[in-house]
Design goal:
Length: about 150
């Protein structure tokens, strides 16, 4: 299985506490996800983020096909970082670390995703042709939305 990595860094003009409050709330994820993904939370306990929390979604990554996606929050260190991992969904592996670091101008936010696709050789071709570009577009959209909401751009 081929493991891929996607890393993004963004500076957010907000306090660490405000940044954490927004990004650690699963209900805000839809606000920064492209509409074309058909992203919808289908089950969530509406509690503050905690290790062991299960969140269920529907996503439409390709051709409008709705797919279930289940993630678990596996680790939380308040105002510092959290990790979500896929338990069921389109990836063979999805491990997403969200880091938050206070700076003199706000917060340095780093996303580090390790992922793998199913289907061996076909999965590798799909990553080259579609998946890596789709993930880039999702994170590019997220950057624009975060800039609009926090950085006044």
């Amino acid at each position: 299985m081929k493991l891929y990595k996607k890393e993004t860094v963004q500076h957010v003009n907000a306090s660490l506490e405000d940044c954490w409050a927004f990004f650690s709330s699963p209900s805000n994820l839809q606000k920064i996800t492209p509409e074309t993904m058909g992203f919808e939370i289908t089950d969530f306990d509406n509690k503050s983020m905690y290790a062991g929390q299960i969140i269920q979604y529907k996503v439409s990554p390709l051709l409008g096909l709705k797919l279930p996606w289940v993630t678990e929050i596996t680790f939380v260190k308040e105002n510092s970082y959290f990790i979500d991992e896929q338990r069921f969904g389109p990836y063979a592996l999805w491990h997403h670390k969200h880091f938050f670091e206070a700076t003199e101008n706000g917060v340095k936010m780093t996303d580090l995703v390790h992922y793998a696709l199913p289907l061996g050789f076909i999965g590798r071709i799909m990553n080259t042709l579609i998946v890596k570009n789709k993930l880039k577009a999702i994170f590019d959209h997220r950057r624009v939305m975060v800039d609009q909401m926090f950085n006044g751009k």
